[in-house]
Write a structure and sequence with these properties.
mainly beta, three-stranded antiparallel β-sheet, elongated, 126 residues
Length: 126
Amino acid sequence: MDASVGIFMESTDPKSRFDFKVTLNDAAGQPLAGRDVVLSVQGDGSLQPGHDAKTMTRETDAQGEVVFSWFRRSIFGRDVKATVSAEPRDLPDAELTLETTEIEALNTSYRTRTYPLRVGGQNIYR
């Protein structure tokens, strides 16, 4: 079983990505961990931010889930149309769902703003 979601963005829409979650369960509703899911995009955009990737394979986690993103890739000035699909590899009886989601932002040092704070005539960086 596979699933797909259509994407349509007008040329004036500033959004540059959509995040998705795939859930893979067996016929009894139990999560299928460590299984391959083939992800693909037809049309505009990419599954990787830095280059044109139309297909990739990801492994489900312990909850039977895979989280991934679709990127607009600097396509502005015209409408964007794409279809994102997910299909389990070699599991014809598996139940698969594909839904949009929000990926939590990572709080890592390279994503944290650094700015000087002046205290008592000295610069203190936060």
